[in-house]
Design brief:
Its EC number is 2.8.2.-. This protein is α/β, with parallel strands linked by helices and about 300 residues long. It has helices at about 30-35, 55-65, 90-95, 100-105, 125-130, 140-155, 160-170, 175-190, 200-205, 205-215, 225-235, 235-240, 280-290, and strands at about 5-10, 15-20, 20-25, 45-50, 110-115, 130-135, 195-200. Helices cover about 40% and strands about 10% of the residues. Helix 2 packs across helix 10. The structure holds adenosine-3'-5'-diphosphate (A3P).
Length: about 300
């Protein structure tokens, strides 16, 4: 089946067009197995994102929130103080790609897992039976973050090539606008099952957005509870400074070959201005404006 799918080779990755999205060739078999075999539980929470839009942060926040009784966020022995968030919340896509689905079966409920697949490619029982929290980000900052990330593995990758791939949709799990819109539409149609968060909103009001996330996950904070402790534990500066996330600390998560420190670069909004010409920024903005027109979605 994989060999029969339309193929696109470019400087970033070898891609196959699968059910309307460009997937890296090595994602396709695992995606098919996930679609066919995943056995959801009603209390599963799936964390979803386009790469480089805040996955690591969302994983940390959701894990710290869900586990706050067993692991008080201020405690010195909290798992997030010794493990990278990708080692606390498994990548479903990765697990199916490596045929290790038994690992998911072994997780205690309620399970927290994540995926980079678009909503349209999630198995039907996930869509009808689980909760899915999505984090989105200004695509201009996503492109910059993606380029820096990919360069860790491909030092000669140019920013221009990365930018063009995003603009023409041929990027992993792209087109990005269709990825974003798939979750946006789900969150509008079924707000109890799909939550849509912005990276920029998390930066602006972390406590308010963690409260939303907790409520959505079915473990709301009481008025007396300390949301700030979760926010502080998961803050960029705290996480980046941890021994486990420092350069040389090994690899994590889906990108097994990627060092853990690669998931913590700047952690700000607006870094695109240091990488793009005003013309490039305007072009990307215009592409997204056109694609999301009439959907009710508005980028910050
Ligand atoms: P930058 O490259 O712009 O710094 P992902 O987790 O989806 O791979 O996204 C990575 C982006 O999120 C990187 O953005 C990274 O620095 C940022 N990030 C990681 N942890 C964060 C945190 N705790 N708070 C804010 N941003 C974070």
């Amino acid at each position: 089946l994989v060999a029969s799918l339309p193929r696109r080779e470019q400087s970033i990755l070898e891609l196959r067009l699968y059910q309307g999205f460009w997937l890296p060739e090595h994602w396709v078999p695992g995606t098919i197995v996930f679609q066919r075999r995943f056995a959801p539980r009603p209390d599963d929470v799936i964390l979803a994102s386009y790469p480089k839009c805040g996955t690591t942060w969302l994983k940390a926040l959701a894990f710290a929130t869900a586990a706050r009784t067993a692991y008080p966020p201020a405690s010195a022995g909290h798992p997030l103080r010794r493990l990278n968030p990708h080692d606390c919340v498994p990548f479903i896509d990765d697990i199916f790609a490596t045929g290790e689905d038994a690992k998911l079966d072994a997780l205690p409920s309620p399970r927290l897992m994540n995926t980079h697949l678009p909503y349209a490619l999630l198995p039907a029982p996930v869509v009808t039976g689980c909760r899915v929290a999505y984090v989105c980000r200004d695509p201009k900052d996503m492109v910059v973050s993606l380029w820096h990330f990919l360069r860790r593995a491909k030092p000669d990758l140019s920013f221009a090539d990365t930018f063009e791939s995003v603009c023409d949709g041929t990027v992993a799990a792209g087109p990005v606008w269709d990825h974003v819109l798939s979750y946006w539409r789900a969150s509008v149609a079924c707000p109890d099952r799909a939550l849509f968060l912005w990276y920029e909103d998390l930066l602006h009001d972390p406590a308010g957005n963690v409260r939303r996330l907790a409520e959505f996950m079915g473990c709301p904070f009481s008025a007396a509870e300390d949301v700030a402790a979760v926010v502080d534990l998961c803050s960029f500066d705290e996480m980046k400074a941890l021994e486990v996330n420092r350069p040389g600390s090994g690899t994590a998560g889906r990108y097994r070959v990627m060092p853990r420190d690669a998931f913590f670069r700047k952690g700000v909004a607006g870094d695109w201005a240091n990488h793009m010409t005003p013309e490039m920024a305007a072009r990307l903005d215009e592409i997204f404006r056109e694609k999301i027109r009439g959907t009710g979605l508005a980028f910050p």
